[in-house]
Specification:
2 domains; 2,3-Dihydroxybiphenyl 1,2-Dioxygenase, domain 1; alpha+beta; 9 strands; 28% strand
Length: 162
């Protein structure tokens, strides 16, 4: 086997996530009505695409292989979570307030030093991380310059007031 390939272009980004869901309307209600994404395209009762800011889509939802299905059992492989990056702390706070107002259970909240994150599950049991990055100059670093990420509790009451 050949050696490792050169690193990927640093401008490369993950463009969207496409999720298998059991109930399309229920999934749309979560991503549109709770998190605030806009539906940009629908394919009848089988699929929908949602975005923020007019992009073609950040989130795809479909029932092609999963209509009426169950979430994966604990201990099985698959998606751990999809991470939704908010541009500011105020935008993350707004997302948190939406989730709380909808009565959705929060699984956890962490300050990672480089970011602040809130963890929950969508109606199909998919993990969802709502987060915002700190500016790179604020990231914690070791003496050698390497990242020193942490996992400390995040004060949700304080965040919600931001």
């Amino acid at each position: 086997m050949a050696g490792p390939n050169p690193p990927v272009d640093p401008a490369t980004r993950i463009g969207h996530v496409h999720l298998k869901v059991a109930d399309l309307e229920r999934a749309i209600a979560f991503y549109r009505d709770v998190l605030g994404f806009a539906v940009t395209q629908r394919y009848g009762s089988e699929a929908a695409f949602l975005s923020a800011g007019g992009y073609h889509h950040h989130i795809g939802l479909n029932t092609w292989e999963s209509r009426g299905g169950d979430p994966p059992a604990p201990g099985s492989t698959g998606l751990y979570h999809v991470a939704i990056l908010y541009p500011t702390r105020a935008a993350l706070a707004d997302a948190l307030r939406r989730v709380v107002a909808a009565g959705i259970r929060i699984d956890g909240a962490s300050d990672h030093g480089v970011s602040e994150a809130v963890y929950l599950r969508d109606p199909d049991g998919n993990g969802v991380e709502l987060y915002r990055d700190r500016a790179p100059e604020e990231w914690p670093r070791k003496a050698d310059g390497a990242l020193a990420m942490t996992t400390r509790p995040l004060d949700l009451v304080e965040l919600a007031s931001a």
